[in-house]
Structure formats: C-alpha cells, structure tokens
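Predicting holo structure, pyridoxal-5'-phosphate bound.
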Amino acid sequence: MPSECTPRFLASDNTSGICPEAMQYLLEANQADDLAYGNDRWTARAADRFREMFDYDCDVFFVFNGTAANSLALSAMGRSYHSVICHELAHIETDECGGPEFFSNGAKLLTSPGANGKLTPQGIEALVTKRSDIHYPKPKVVSLTQATEVGTVYSREELLAIRAMADKHDLRLHMDGARFANACAGLKATPAELTWQVGVDVLCFSGTKNGLAFGEAILFFNRELAEDFSYRCKQAGQLASKMRYVSAPWLGLLESGAWLTNAEHANAMARYLSEGLQALPGVSLMFPTQANSVFVEFPPHAIEALKARGWTFYTFIGAGGARFVCAWNTTVELLDQLLADVKAVLE
Ligand SMILES: Cc1ncc(COP(=O)(O)O)c(C=O)c1O
Ligand SMILES: C[C@H](O)[C@H](N)C(=O)O
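Done. Tokens:
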C-alpha cells in the first residue's frame, strides 16, 4: 500500500478495536488478582451469564480464537475415522489450515455446494448416502456457519430442516458462530431460537469479531460431548492461565447488551454500504446482504485503484469478488468515502 495513503479498514471485523464495554470490564478485572485457568470469578460469572442468555444449562469454555474453537469443538463431536459435512465455502474448509482435521486426528471434511453459502438437507443427504462401505469416512457431524462466510443467514426453518436431516442420519450439529451475533441481529431472533431450539449441539460464538481483542466461547448444549473438553483445550494450548482477561470482556458484552447492539450496528452499516453500491451504475452484489458483510465484483483495475487509495479488503473469501466487512465501530463517513472512491474508480 503506498505509504501516502492512510489505510482504511473494511477487510474484516477482525481489524476493529476493543469496544468500550469490553474495555471497561477488562480494566475492572485488572483491579485485583484472581485465580488462574478459569477458576476466577469473572469466568464463572461469564459462564453463568451465557446460560442465562441462552436460557439453557450448557457447558461453556473460552479459547483464544475461532480456528481453535471450531477445531477443538469438532474434535469432541466425532472420532478420527468420522467425517464432517460442511459447505464448500466453509471457513473450516477454506481458512483453518487443516485445524479441524489435525485436532480430530484425521476426521475428513466432506464439502457440499449450496446457494448463498448455505448447506441444504439434500446436499447433506447426498454425502451421507453416497457410500456406506468401510473405506468411506463415516459422516457423523454437520458443520454450518451462522452467519455464513458470504454474509447470508440460515432461517429457523432452514436450521430445523437441517436438524431433521441430521436426526435421520444420526449426525451431530456444529455451528460456527463467528458472526452469530450478526445472525441474531439480522433475523431478530434470540440466541436460543437459533441454537438449542433448532437442535444445535455445539456453538462456537466469536467475541473477537464483536468488539473483543480476542476470545471465543464454546457452548455445549449437548453436554455429553463436553466430557473432558477442558483437557482438549489444555493440550492444544488453549487454556488461558489468566482466563479472566478473556471472560471479563465477554461479560462486558453480555451484561451491557453490546453483543447485540454491536452486531446491529455492523449489520446496519453493511446495509448502508450495500444500498450505496447498488445505486452505482454497473455495480451488482454477489450475495444478499443479511449480516455484516458485502460482496461485490469489481474489474481488476478498480480493485487495484481502490487499494491504491488505501482501502483494505479481501478478494479470497467465498466465491471471489471483493468482501467488505462492517464492524461495531464502522462509520457512515468511512462508507461514504468508500462509495465516492468506488464511483471514481469505475468512471
Ligand atoms: C466464519 C469464520 N469462522 C471462523 C473464523 C476463525 O477465526 P480466527 O481467525 O479467530 O481463527 C473466522 C475468522 O475470522 C471466520 O470468518
Ligand atoms: C478469512 C479470515 O480468516 C477471517 N476469518 C475473516 O473473515 O476475516
């Protein structure tokens, strides 16, 4: 990036800073010493708050990042000789560097196509019934991403249909909730309505993308799968000794309600950007904007010109195109600058 351009960040919600609510609780947790390895007061309070928020007596674990959350959760949901069915654009397939396969000691990912980045019951069943011989890694888990990698969401009806197919074939259901809050906001649904009430066994809920510095919560609604899970975390280097610095900021998000208002803001900004882009001649979106990501196809010269103006965005996500991700701190002013630059480089 030319040094004269101030970088302007819309590549990912991972580029945003720590929101005020999380920072406040982080500083409060720093006022006193506390026990280590999750035995502190903050971690207990955060776990209880999750159970209250989801209205379910789930097991709660905290790890540092989403790849660890997905990989370790999936390793607890099946055996090494099993397979995990996921969408062909799933993060666990495209961007976790083999983490799920590694931590499960070899479970294979079986990928399925599907419009708008979403698995379908038919796609799942096609993989389950494709083969039944001993040489085929036995399907045991379905992993879906909510909101998806391409910024769409599964409706409750779609989730229930997937759960019905999973029940038909004795499959467990994992939810990559890197942008789960954005799905709740986009669907105006409660956390319970989008998880255990539609048969999700394990949710990996990202805080990193929602205003934390780092920190992901893994919620086991199927508590049998959580047996010895803390040992999996420890062995993987994911048991934080000063866990209160992960759990306290999470508590800040939950107790203030910022977990939802941050997502509502990010989604609103994405809608604003989406509408602005569609108003420009010759610009069309690649996917409906249902959460906090906007995908648009630009000619190569426009991509280079936007980057030369300091814009950071990914072009390797999903089915290509440029991805712009809005976060809790994205502003209309920033988006207006982008829209003006897009208009200029396309003229
Ligand atoms: C859909 C999805 N799942 C999982 C992850 C993994 O998160 P991390 O980068 O923290 O490993 C990401 C990354 O942001 C993601 O976009
Ligand atoms: C793609 C990258 O790994 C990250 N999950 C993101 O969405 O920005």
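The first strand starts at residue 8 and ends at 9.
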